[in-house]
Amino acid sequence: MGLSRLSSRLKYSACVLALLAGPAAHAGLFDDEEARKAILDLRARIQTSDDAQRLRSEQLAKQLAELQSEQLGTLRRSLLELNTQNEGLRAELAKLRGLNEQLARDVAELQRKQTDLSQGLDERLRKMEPQKVVLDGKEVLVEPDEKRLYEAAVASVRSGDFVEAAGSLSAFQRRFPASAFADSVRFWLGNAYYGKRDYKDAVTVFRAFVNAAPEHPRAPEALLAMANCQLELKDAKTARRTLDELIKAYPKSEAAQAGKERLASLK
């Protein structure tokens, strides 16, 4: 449509020039053939320009498409790498969580064992600490082993196992010579010797007991038992002196009343 208009305009311009110039000028004008060639030439140049422009546009479109494709590929690779990294981080995080949970369990178990160990240690320390006991009306401090061995030995005396009792009480004296149980141990040891008919040793132990603890609540009993041992040894004279000592030293005791009866029987 543009080329047709241009051709018409060229033809119109050529006619006007021919009329104005007259016959002389008319001879110099382009004829129709030349005008047609000019138009074709112009059309060709325009077509060439359009083709070049279209080619350039196609090239630019191709380059843009290639660039977009390259960028898209780069973006896809980046996204893939990022996704792979994310998966790796998730796996590492899950592993760390698992380790953290295991560590928490280990810590809890360690704390439980430490608590048990501490409680066990406290219990053992309590067993090793001196204990308060009431002995013959007095409160004293004794070692746990000391208390246990003493009670076991006295239990042997009361059960009638005098041989075992004598051995245990003698061993106790050697192990705990300054024990708060020392006076009571002498009294029960004298009874153990008396029970197994070892009267001579019984007299010796009872005498040591009375001399060491004359204010002891069992001192009157010890003198009465000592007199009985002396009678068993056929030493009535010494037995009477022991009974006299009992009556004079502890007149209000039950042992003194029994001693009076025994002394009367000897006369």
Automatic annotation (TrEMBL):
GO terms for cellular component: outer membrane-bounded periplasmic space. Keywords: Cell cycle, Cell division, Coiled coil, Periplasm, Signal, TPR repeat. Residues 72-113 form a coiled coil. Pfam families: TolA_bind_tri, YfiO. TPR repeats lie at residues 183-216. Residues 74-131 form the YbgF trimerisation domain. Residues 1-27 form the signal peptide. It is found in: Periplasm. Residues 145-267 form the Outer membrane lipoprotein BamD-like domain. The keyword DNA damage does not apply. The keyword Signal applies. GO terms for biological process: FtsZ-dependent cytokinesis; protein trimerization. It comes from the Bacteria. NCBIfam families: tol_pal_ybgF. Mediates coordination of peptidoglycan synthesis and outer membrane constriction during cell division. Belongs to the CpoB family. This is Cell division coordinator CpoB. It comes from Roseateles toxinivorans. The lineage of its organism: Bacteria, Pseudomonadati, Pseudomonadota, Betaproteobacteria, Burkholderiales. The gene is cpoB.
